[in-house]
Specification:
The protein is globular. Helix content is about 35%, strand content about 20%. By secondary structure, the protein is α+β, with helices and mostly antiparallel strands. A hairpin with a 2-residue loop joins strand 1 (about 25) and strand 2. It has a 4-stranded antiparallel sheet, with helices on one face. Strands 5-6-7 form a 3-stranded antiparallel sheet. InterPro entries: RVT_2. This is Retrovirus-related Pol polyprotein from transposon TNT 1-94. It comes from Vitis vinifera (Grape).
């Protein structure tokens, strides 16, 4: 803490500063600290709650998986007629995708695959694609208070990487989906899913 105070003192000589104390929130993420146990939690409870309210999913029935096996998305489910395209253009799909992507990038790594799958249909979405987005919202409804916990003292502070690949899982172009996760002391620090 002495080094932090010294740095604050040096910076305040060069810049107009106001010490607001310990950080509790940054970029939509809540930070909870327990200094005695050396634990820090990152979550997006307030952000996810606002997103669910915005898309009228705050009272939806929660589910336990971000993407179910029965959803097999393809371009065949995209609108075929001008009327279908016009009806689907009223759906706030891009906005919903942006909200889901932000949650996934910050603190919810287990959304990576589901968000990757549904983001392929941003330019031409069908009703099934929107149903999957609502499914993901239902998952968030059930996991709204989840987050990532980091511990000061860890028995194994090593960095580890995990990778998984499906084999030609994309129904349209038969491409494979790859996902990776890197952890520090067993806690996720970097993740991605892509086709």
């Amino acid at each position: 803490m002495v080094k932090v105070n010294k740095l604050k003192s040096l910076l305040s000589k060069e810049f107009d500063m106001k010490d607001l104390g310990a950080t509790k929130k940054i970029l939509g993420m809540e930070i909870h600290r327990d200094r005695t146990s050396g634990k820090l939690w990152l979550s997006q409870y307030s952000y996810v709650k606002r997103v669910l309210e915005r898309f009228n999913m705050d009272n939806a029935k929660p589910i336990s998986t971000p993407l179910a096996n029965h959803f097999r998305l393809s371009t065949n489910q995209c609108p075929k007629t001008d009327d279908e395209v016009k009806n689907m253009s009223k759906v706030p799909y891009a906005s919903a995708m942006g909200c889901l992507m932000y949650a996934m990038v910050c603190t919810i790594p287990n959304l990576a695959h589901a968000v990757s799958v549904v983001s392929k249909f941003l330019s031409n979405l069908g009703i099934m694609h929107w149903d999957v987005v609502k499914w993901i919202f239902r998952y968030l409804r059930g996991t709204i208070d989840y987050g990532i916990m980091f511990c000061k003292q860890q028995s194994d502070p090593s960095v580890r990487g995990y990778v998984d690949v499906d084999y030609v899982g994309d129904l349209d172009d038969r491409r494979s989906t790859t996902g990776y996760l890197f952890t520090l002391g067993g806690r996720p620090i970097c993740w991605k899913s892509m086709t």
